[in-house]
Structures are given as structure tokens and as C-alpha cells.
Amino acid sequence: MNAGAFTPKLITALREGYGLARFRVDFIAGLTVAIVALPLAMALGIASGASPREGLITAVVAGFLISALGGSRVQIGGPTGAFVVVVAGIIAEHGFPGLILATLMAGIILIVAGYCGVGRLMRFVPMPVVTGFTAGIAVIIASSQIGDFLGLHADAPVDFLEKWAAYLRGLDGFSAAALGTGLGTLALLIGLRRFVPRLPAYLIVIVAAAIAAAWLGLPVETVGDRFPAMPAGLPAPHLPDVSLALIRDLLPSAFTIAFLAGIEALLSAVVADGMTGYRHRSGQELVGMGVANIASALFGGLPATGAIARTATNVRAGARTPVAGIVHALFLLGFMLVAGDLIALVPMATLAAVLLMVAWGMSEAGRFRALLRSDPGERALLILTFLLTIFVDLTVAIGVGVTLAALFFMRRMSEHAGLAAVDPEEEPEQRDRLPPGVEVLRFTGPIFFGVASEMIDALRRVGERPTAIVLRMELVPYIDATGANALETFVRQAKAGGTEIWLCGMQRQPLDLLARMNPAFAGARRALTYAGALGRLGAPDRQFT
After folding, report:
1. Which among 459, 321, 421 is positioned nearest to 16, based on CA atoms?
2. For 7-29, what is each residue's pLDDT tens digit?
3. What's the gap between Cα 90 and its chain centre?
4. Per-residue pLDDT tens for 221-274?
5. Tell me: the pLDDT tens digits for 441-472?
């Protein structure tokens, strides 16, 4: 294992030489992204079923450690919309202590995954699955904010359909002031992002809404009304209550948190690489993410991962090293210490509008529409993952989506890999040299369990049993255990019918695997050419049977 693969990028950046000029650039970038992250952390904490304080704790603790220990130079970590559904479900079922334990377990899973090289496998999760569950999460986040946006006071259930049923029952009690505040916030947000995109739109709208609500005396619920006793600063770290039964109950949720954290962090790191030209270390990124989630849990925070929008803001602000992310976390801590009274004045309808914009950004509507125009299999995968995320469960959606994607992939590979007789017109000279009773079959592509049955069927397709069959293997880069077993069965059945088998042009991996699995193939460790095999068909001591 390459030791450098698990060196945090902060250490790499400091070794290159870090002076005042670089710090000045990182300092400005850190302040810029902190201004963007402040309202998002508050809103995501509320949307998750916790409070603004938990969102800010996560942004401070996890944001600091993701930058200090991660494998990306410019990654910004903290709470994200991807976790809202999972976190709200865990809190509803197991309470906040259950969430703390699940987050801690997810951190351990991420560390193990990082050192085991799972980071390289995350990129194989297909885009329809990622887009499907991301769009599904966006729909759920948007739905969860309708109550605050309309000023409804009824508690909405976690279940999607039951939540909308509760909204419909409570429509008579909607607040015109809350709706006006929410619509005004949305209009201001859209205008700022369209005409002056460089300004911190989220911070501007929550400050403007807080001032307007207080000055006009609007009868709207504020953060202080919902969370009247919200202390400032970080709490002391503490271990959660642990029991074997609780660990068993929370294990699926912990794996879901770890999966989402890994996927989003690595996607964000890839985006950052494209913007900066650097290259992240996927293993160390997962390790740093794991440590950050453990620390966030110990301080009473939420799950954390890399935030694509905040990371992009960091890069555009000029960040060059992880110091910018560390500065961003320290600024957020300062805001927590001195701005607690101001945070309490923010209307809940304003935070709901902010989260509606976050949900729209998460939905990736353009990509969703593009995938709907793809082939039927990809389209079905997208829609199924999307619907399962909304109406069933995120864990089920991910599991079903990844499994079906793997099955679709294997089906496509089996369509392009197989066993066929060599066309006489393709290689006439070699075909003319074939002795009577000799057939040549050629494999193309990997031999795995999806195509292994092709070998057995080939004997039936040959018709009258030939004296010998030459299997051309030069186009087979890989064979798995099922394919090797099928090849062994092919040889055994052919031998029982009096047919000799010759394996020609074998590459290293298939050759080594066959020799390890069955001593009968140990003599086949030297690959033969097609023509060479034809010249030796009369020599029984050189045949591979």
C-alpha cells in the first residue's frame, strides 16, 4: 500500500511551503464560505428534526476535521441535504441519542472503508442511482418545509403520504404572514442568484427577513420561538449510551449514513479536482470523513460529508489549501458565540424558503430529464430509485438500485461476451489447415457467471462431436470462479464424449486462476498460439484436457 495515499492533504500543502500570501487567500475564502454555510447549517439542522445548534456544531467540528484530515485540498464539510431524510427517520424512531450512536458507527465504517480501498469502488455506483435517490431526497426535503412555509402549526408525520395528508387537513390554519415571508424570501433569493450571484444570497435573505419581521412586527414563528433555550458555543464531548440491541437496530442506518457520506464526499472531491486541477486521495478522504463523523457525534452533532455547493464556493473564492476549510469552521464557531441572539430572530418561513432552494439545487432537474431520454434500462433504474426513495425508504432504494444496476451491467456484458465458432471467411488460411473433425471456438470478453453457461451450450451447438476443439482465449482478459468452473465442466463433458480440448492464447489472469483452482490445468501455464495448437493436435502429451 502506498503510504502517501493516506497522508492528509493539509500535511502535503504545508510541506510544499506555506506563507503569508497563501494564508491571506485561504483566509478570505474561508470567511466567504462561512457566510454561505451559516444559514445552510441552521436550516439543515432544523430540517433534520434537530435544531440550528446541532447543524452549526456539525459544520464547526466536522468541517474542521474534514479539512484537517481529508484527502482533498479544498473540500468543505458539514451537514448536507442528503442526510435530512435518514436523520429525521432515526430521530423519530430512536431519538437523538440513537442518531448519535448511528453517526459514530458510520464514522467507524468510513474509516474501515477508507483503509480497505472502498473509495475506489464508490465511483462505480451508476449515475441513474445517484440521481434517482438525490432527486427523491430533494422531493422529501421540499415536502418537509411546506408546513413552515405556510405557517401551519400541525405536526407532520415522517411518512411522505401521511405528511401531505396532514398538510391538507391543516390548510385552514395557514398563516398569510408566514406565506408572504416565505414568498418574499424566495423572490429575493432568486433575484440575487440571477443578477448578483457573487453575493452571499442565503445570508442576505435571512438577515433581511429577520430585520423585516422584527421591524414590521409580523406574526410569524421564529427560530427563537421554536427553540427558546439554545445555548451558544460547543458542548463538552460525551459518549452515547451503547447496547448490543441498539447497535443491531441502528446498523442499517449507520451503513446508509456511511454510504451517503462516502458517495457525496467523493463526488464533491471529484468536482473540486475538476475546478482546481488537483487530485484527491479517496482513501484518506473517507478516513478523514470517518474521524469527522465520530467527533461530530461525540459533540452532539449530525452526520457530515463533503458539500458540493460550499466546496465550489470555496474554490471560486480562491482557496488553495485545506487551511481555508479550517478557517471556515473557526468563523462559524465565532458566529455561534456572538450571534446567538440574532439567530433567534430569523423567521422559520425564511429558513423553509432557503431549504426549498437547496432542494431544487439537489434535484438536478436537467440531469434527471436527460436520463429520462436514455435507454429503457437506465430510465427504469432512475425512476425506480426515485420512487423507492420517496415512498419506501432510502436504504431500500440504494440497495435495490445498486443491485439492479449490477444486474443490468452483467446482462449487457453477457450480450457482448460469449463463445462463437470462428468464421471460415475471417481466417481462411488457418481454417484450411484444420484437420478433419476439428472445431475452433473463440471467446470474446471476460468469462464470468453471467456468460458461463455459454460454454456448456456450445457443446450442444457443435452438433456431431468433433475429435478436438480449439478454444481461442486471447480476447479473454478475466475469468472468475464461476467461469473457471464452467470451463472445467466443458472440458470434462467434452472428454467424456471423446473430444480433446486445446486452450490457446491465454492471458495471465485466466491462466493463473485455472492453475490454482484445478491441478488438471497446471500444465496449461504456457499459452499457445492458434496455429501452434493446430500443429500439435496429434501430440497427446501437449493437449490441455
Report:
1. 321
2. 999 999 999 988 898 999 999 99
3. 20
4. 998 888 887 667 788 899 888 889 999 999 999 999 998 899 889 888 887 887
5. 877 777 766 565 666 566 566 656 778 888 88
Using CA atoms, how far apart are residues 544 and 531, in angstroms rounded to an integer? 15
Q: What is the secondary structure of 446-475 as a DSSP string?
A: -B-TTTTHHHHHHHHHH-SPPSEEEEE-TT
- Whole-number Cα distances in Å, 452 to 370, 443, 482, 496: 35, 11, 7, 20
Can you tell me whether residue 479 is helix, strand or coil? strand
pTM: 0.73
Cα separation, 387 vs 41, in Å, equals 27
Half-sphere exposure (Cβ direction) of 396: Cα atoms closer than 13 Å: 9
59: number of CA atoms within 13 Å, CB side? 35
Distance between CA atoms of residues 235 and 392, nearest Å: 36
- DSSP, collapsed to helix, strand or coil, labels residue 305 as strand
Stretch (H or E) spanning 95: helix 84-115
Give the residue from 227, 165, 171, 217 showing the smallest Cα distance to 351. Answer: 227
Task: Report the C-alpha gap between 403 and 47 in whole angstroms.
Answer: 30
Domains observed in the chain: 25-369 (no CATH), 418-542 (3.30.750.24)
* Burial profile 368-378: b = 16 or more Cβ within 10 angstroms, e = fewer: beebeeeeebb
Rg (alpha carbons) of the chain, rounded to whole number: 30
SS (H, E, C) 399-447: HHHHHHHHHHHHHHHHHHCEEEECCCCCCHHHHHCCCCCEEEEEEECCE
Q: Which three cell numbers stand for residue 452?
A: 458461463
Largest CA distance in the chain: 101
The candidate with the shortest Cα–Cα distance to 440, out of 431, 449, 448, 432, is 431
Three-class SS of residue 306?
A: strand
Task: State what percent of residues in the chain have pLDDT above 70.
Answer: 85
Are 3 and 284 in contact by the 8 Å Cβ rule? The answer is no
Burial class (CB within 10 angstroms; exposed 0-12, middle 13-18, buried 19+) of 287? buried
DSSP β-bridge partners for residue 419: 443
DSSP letter for 347, please. Answer: B
Q: Determine the Cα–Cα distance for residues 543 and 529; give it in Å rounded to an integer.
A: 13
Look up residue 253 and give its three cell numbers: 442506518
CA atoms within 13 A on the CB side of 203: 15
Residue 527, number of CB atoms within 10 A of its CB: 17
